[in-house]
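Re: the request from the purification team.
They wanted to know what the chain is likely to look like in 3D before they choose a buffer screen. I agreed to run a prediction and write the result into the notebook, where they can find it.
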Amino acid sequence: MIDNFCIIVNTNSSCSDIWEMFFYQLEKFFPGQKVYVFSDYFDNKNKNYQFVNYDKNLDFRTQYLNCIETVQEKYCLNMNDDYILYDIVNFEKICELKKTLENDNEISFVRVDRKSTR
C-alpha cells in the first residue's frame, strides 16, 4: 500500500456490466490500495471501496469536482472502469512518480501509460 495515495474510479451505473471484471482485476493487480468510486450508483458489496455518489443530472465537471472534495489523500491515480489491468502494477514506478510530484512544485500531475510504468 502506498502512503497518502489512492485510486479514483470514475464510473456510471450504465457501465455496471463491466464492474465485476474491472474490480476483480484491480484487486488482483493493485491490491490493498484505498479506492474511491465516483458514480451515480454503486452496489458496494466490497466494503474496501469508498463510494462517492454524484447527481447524474449535473455536468461531468461538476460531478467530478463535488466528488474529489471527499478524497483525503494528496496523490491519486485516476481510472475509468474501462481501464482494465492485465498485469501487476509496477509499484516502484508509482512511488517514483509520487516522489517526483512531491519534490517538484512545477509539476501538478503525471500521465501514466503502459510504456511509462515499465
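For the purification team: The chain has a mean pLDDT of 90.
Please add any questions underneath this entry.
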